[in-house]
Amino acid sequence: MGKKPTIESLVKKVGNYAPDADLDLLKLAYDFADSAHKGQKRKSGEPYIIHPLATAHILADLRIDVAIVMAALLHDVPEDTKVTLEEVEKNFGPEVASMVKGITKLGKLKYRGVERYIENLRKMFVAMAEDIRVMILKFADRIHNLSTLDALPPQKRYRIALESLEIYAPIAGRLGMDEFKGRLEDLSFQYVYPKEFQKAKKIRDERLEGKEVFIENIQKTAKKELEAAGVKINFIHGRKKRLYSFHMKLQRKNNETAKIYDMVALRIIVPTIADCYAALGILHTIWKPMKGRIKDYISQPKPNGYQSLHTTVLSDTGEIVEFQIRTTDMHEEAEFGAAAHWHYDETGAKRPAKKIQWVKELAEIQKDVLNKLSDLEEIKVDFLQSRIFVFTPKGDVIDLPENATPVDFAYHIHTEVGNKCNGAIVNEQMTSLDTGLKNGDVVEILTDKNRKGPSRDWLKFVKTHTAKGHINNYLKSQGGLLPAWFKKNKE
Ligand code: MN
What we know:
Layout: H1 7-17, H2 23-36, H3 50-61, H4 66-74, H5 77-80, H6 85-106, H7 113-130, H8 132-147, H9 154-174, H10 178-192, H11 194-208, H12 212-228, E1 235-240, H13 243-252, E2 264-270, H14 273-286, E3 288-289, E4 295-296, E5 309-314, E6 320-327, H15 328-336, H16 361-377, E7 387-391, E8 397-401, H17 406-413, H18 415-419, E9 421-426, E10 429-431, E11 443-447, H19 465-477, H20 484-490
Parallel strand pairs: 2-6
Antiparallel strand pairs: 1-2, 3-5, 4-5, 5-6, 7-8, 9-10, 9-11
Helix pairs in contact: 1-2, 1-3, 2-4, 3-4, 3-8, 4-6, 4-8, 6-7, 6-8, 7-8, 8-10, 9-10, 9-16, 10-11, 11-13
């Protein structure tokens, strides 16, 4: 972490990128958390407040929206202190409180057997679907916990690192948050695979030794030539390959380090797409591109939406360098993904909210995690598989058992929606009420206000207790559960 994080430096940091932020309230959030955690210590012996403060700094370093930074300061208050969520809400408003609530629901680092673990995972998916900001906060929380793992016993250290590497990092990756993914991976790597970590570090350091001056020169030349040709550069910087991703690549390339060309990549961020292609052309007039190494992820984005132009060139001295060229927008998207909307770019602007299409990705993420888990634990996990996530047309997520039907969905929304439901549109198609829903389905319920109540037949296909209960209650209120003909005969 370097030097100790303070509230003063946090306020200064946030003020620098978010001119509209209420810095007094930010300071108050700190004082509030500080007094709530008074007397509590971390395993390392430090005062507890260091943890929420460091978590807030991690977010502020990434220029994240101040509401999330405030929630970070307060994130452990309801779970660990006598101060309640209601008091957090009274002082800091519903937006911050709802994030604190989300993270509190996720719970802390507790391992009570596989079942509890899976249950926590399920909670995580729901929390994530409801408000992605809770996950942004959770990632920062985890990054700080990982960077202070040395204070924990080895077995616990290993479990936390393994969970971060196998579950948190891939989720960050799927959400397009490369910055978080890379940090989660590199912090966990040394605890999960210590030998491989040492090996990767040694090879990387050897390959990069004494290259700083060379990299700097390449960067200067590129900048000078591009500007001479009239291409505006928003910024340019060199990036060492992260250790874990280097390790994975080494394995894919059968340990042939010579085949890894992006040990250092130079990133060039320009204003427009036209500038990207112009820059590529100019670089190729200075240095010879390597055959088969020019990749146009602008016209053909990667499956996760990543866009950039990549090229690998040979320098005059025979060294190999990779360039990555993209617009500011593409860069924000690549680094922050689903979090980009809450991130201030260099010009102090925030990006418009995107349609929450990514939420559908959750189904895929679930599958990934499940595969990972069954490798990891060598057990058949069916808890997550037995749940599905479906969406309202507005994008709210509803968590239901597998094969639940539109009627279950309707009762989940509201009793009256269930009682009056008359039809369903699933993924823009009219669908019968007994259809089994699938992960990611968008469900709209059609109601008829003249409808008297639910049909007895629905009991044959509904899957949730909620739906069954409401239907039975209605039937009872209509004179019991006996069929109509029976009642008639009795009269
Ligand atoms: Mn925490």
